[in-house]
Structures are given as C-alpha cells and as structure tokens.
Amino acid sequence: MSRNYHHGALAEAMVDQALADVRVQGAEHVSLRSIAQTLEVSPSSAYNHFADKDDLLRAVGACGLAALDERMARVLAAHPADNPDAARARFSGLGRAYLAFAIDETHLFQLTFGPICAVQEIPPEDTGPYNKLTTALDDLDRWQLLKPGIRSDLDLMVWASTHGMATLLVEGAVPPESVDAFIDSMARLVFIEGALSAAEGR
Amino acid sequence: MSRNYHHGALAEAMVDQALADVRVQGAEHVSLRSIAQTLEVSPSSAYNHFADKDDLLRAVGACGLAALDERMARVLAAHPADNPDAARARFSGLGRAYLAFAIDETHLFQLTFGPICAVQEIPPEDTGPYNKLTTALDDLDRWQLLKPGIRSDLDLMVWASTHGMATLLVEGAVPPESVDAFIDSMARLVFIEGALSAAEGR
DNA sequence: GCTCCTATGTTGACATTGTTCACATGAGAT
DNA sequence: ATCTCATGTGAACAATGTCAACATAGGAGC
User: Fold this and answer.
1) B 36-65 residues, CB < 7 A, strand D
2) Do B157 and A182 touch (CB under 8 A)?
3) Nucleotides of D under 7 A from a protein CB
4) CB of A49 under 7 A from strand D?
C-alpha cells in the first residue's frame, strides 16, 4: 500500500524478485505469494501480468538464458578470431563459460534448462549460445585445426557434451575439479595432433 | 479399509503407485495424497515408511536408475565382447540404450537425474551404467579401435556427451531423429579411421 | 476540464497439498 | 492371555496456486 505499482513496473519487479529467489532457493521452492509479499502487493496481482506461476518462472528462465549468452559473448569479444591460437581459445573459452555458468548459477541453470522452460528447437536465425558455438567451430575449421572429417554434426556433439557436463556438475555427480579433464579430453578429440596447447582456454 | 496393509507391503505399493504416476504426469505433479487415495490408505500412513515426499520420490528415482541399468545390461549381454565388431556394437548400443531410455521414459529420466535425487559421485566399486560404459571403452581400447592417445578421461567425456544428448532430447531441444547423427558423430570422434561401420549399433 | 474506459491492484474465498500429532489396532513375542 | 511395537487412522494446520467480484487510478476523447 505504501508504493503502488500503477506504473507498469510490477511485471519487471516480480521477475527480478523471482530471479533473486530462484538464485537462492531454487525454482522448486519459490512461491508466488512470498514474492508478492516481498513486493508488498496482493498475491493475485501477479495474474494481471502472468498467466501462471510457471509463466513467471519462464520469464526468469529467459533471464538465465540471457545471462549465459552474455558470458559467452564476453568470451568471443575477448578473443578476436584472427589467428589459430585465438580460435582455439574461443572454443575452449566458450566451453568453460558454459560450465562456469552452471557452477556459479546452479539453480538458475536448472530452471533455464528444466522441464518448466521447454527449450524450443533452435531456429536457423538463432543468435544465442548455440549459434556462438557453431561459429567457433567454423573458425576452427577455417584454420584447419579440426581433425579431418569430423566437422559434420560436430555442433550437436559438442553442445551435448558441454550441456551434459554442466548437468553432471549441477547434480553433483562430478566435482568441479573435473572441468579441466573434460576440456582437455574434448581438445584431444577434436583438435589435430600437435595443435594442443598446454593450458586450453585461459 | 477394505484391505489393510498390515503386512508390510505398503512401502512397496506406494513406490509402485508413485512410479506409475511419475511415468504419466511427471514427478512435479504427483501428490502424496492422491497416491494414498488410490491405495485406499490414509495420507499420513506414508510417513511410517518415508521421511518425506521427496524421500518417496527418491525411491522412485532409484527404480529409474535400475531400469536404465537393466537396459544397458541387456545390450552387453547381447554382444559378447570377443571380437572388434562386437566391441563397437557394445559401445554404440550402450549409447543408444541410454538415449532410448530418455526418450521412452522422459519423466522418469527427469526424476532420476533431477534435483530431488542427488546423484552421488560414482564410487570406485560401482557396477551401474557408468561402470558398464567404462568396460565398453576398455574393450574398445583392448582391440585398438580407439584413436591413439584419447583414452584418458574418455569415460567422463562420453558420459557427459550421452547424458547431455539425453537431456536435450528430453527437453525437446533436439528431435529424436538426431540420435543417429549423434551416434555417428561420436563414432567419428573416437574410432580410428577405417573402423567405422555403416550402421553403428543395431 | 469533465467523463468514461481500461489497465492494474485488492479482498476474500476455495480446493489442494505436505506434514504433524494424538490415537487406534492388529500381529507376534513372552 | 497379555504386552508391545510396528503400522494405519482421523482431525487439524499452515501454506500454496488460483479465481471471481470489486475497487481505483490515470489517460483518451470530447
């Protein structure tokens, strides 16, 4: 009652608060009512902006995807792909960024790629994480750093690997220390012999 | 009241019913009360056998893991690893079994590897899916079918890949048709050149 | 500047859920 | 036959998602 939200900012405020709550408790334990209470707003006001609790959570999941994409974009920006070393650094850096996101933002990661936020199939004109991976692989291919004959469907393979490793990290099935082993193993699989640097990534 | 469960079978009955419910509605939408109601039992009776709703769900998740393991065991039993072709078939077959489980039992897969059932780190004497993968890789190595130098940490890599692909399938991020592309890509990465068979697996 | 409409927030209510506590009861050991 | 403990019951509580009827503020149109 102190502040009233008759200025259209409630939707954003709820997403922000939900995002904060998801970060600390995980999506399973956030409650519409407590969000409303924190914002000093009636529980039912949410239904003017979101069809559903899940609808709100989907908005939070979209924030998660955006955060991941931003991390990956930063990696690309840091390494202009104008030489082989940078191309390798891009590739490994993208992987590390993905895994770091999973480790740092476990709950957000789980929501973003969980059952609530159905990830739609990647559209051709996508500019998100998947597209960034594809361009990194194209760069590697252009510099002839990939083992011969493996380029086709490599996007799917690398995406699945990295996403799977992230999931295993998040579930605690694998300790964070094994990230290096994973990245090394990946490098051994895809890079031509002799092109392995001692410390992949950064 | 018709049948009373004073014979100790309630725990199993609840797990069975919960398993059935998870299969159709997904773990997020199963309710202790409705399970009790189906079994014609009081809601609170569950607490004589399970600490918690999550405790019951963890039992269901264990069933899921067992079902997955059984599928993989069937693959190993079907291909005695006494020749190179069989060793390759084992490897690809295990991958296909994992992915088939994810596709057939989406909800159970999500529960088994979801936040509720924290997957503990793999113990050294494990005999489950991870161990089966390791032995399949050892077989490939013994027959010298792997590209040189990639064996170390390959378990982690292959596990992550397959698990990640399964997750992508379950989330709908990738259509079931791409399983073949995934398996082929995997084969291109790990098998020595010339050892690729036209139809990996079966 | 007045009026009306629509977007937005409130009140109160309902059904459902997980969980607990005090109590009943039945089967097996003594 | 009695005692005891494991197991199931009944009633209750707090919390949650959701909805329908209602209030109101602030801008659009005159």
Assistant:
1) 40-45, 48-49
2) yes
3) 6-12, 15-21, 25-26
4) no
The residue with tokens 């104008």 is A82
Query: At A173, phi and psi to the nearest 5?
Result: -70, -15
Among B121, B182, B188, the residue with its CB nearest the CB of A173 is B121
For domain A64-190, give the CATH number.
1.10.357.10
Q: Which of B34, B2, B40, B5 is nearest to B18 (CA)?
A: B34
Residues from chain B contacting residue A156 (CB–CB below 8 Å): 165, 174, 178, 181-182, 185
Q: Dihedral (C-alpha) B29, B122, B173, B136: value to the nearest 10 degrees? A: -130
What letter would DSSP give residue B45? G
User: Model confidence over A47-96: pLDDT tens digits?
Assistant: 999 999 999 999 999 999 999 999 999 999 999 888 999 999 999 999 99
The whole-number pLDDT of residue A193 equals 81
Chain B: give the shortest CA distance to residue A128, in Å.
13
pLDDT tens digits for A170-195? 999 999 999 999 999 999 999 998 65
Beta-carbon contacts of B61 under 8 Å, excluding residues fewer than 6 positions away, are B111, B112, B114, B116, B117
Which one-letter amino acid corresponds to residue B197? S
Q: Which residues of A touch B190 (CB under 8 A)?
A: 189
Domain ranges, ordered by start, for chain A: 1-50, 64-190
CATH number of A1-50: 1.10.10
User: DSSP labels for A115-153?
Assistant: SSSPPPPPPTT--SHHHHHHHHHHHHHHTT-BPTT--TT
Tell me the DSSP string of B74-108.
HHHHHS-SSSHHHHHHHHHHHHHHHHHHHHHTHHH
Which residue reads 């990696």 in tokens?
A75
B121 to chain A, closest Cα gap in Å = 5
Q: Looking at the complex, report in whole angstroms how far the Cα of residue A154 sits from the nearest Cα belonging to chain B.
A: 6
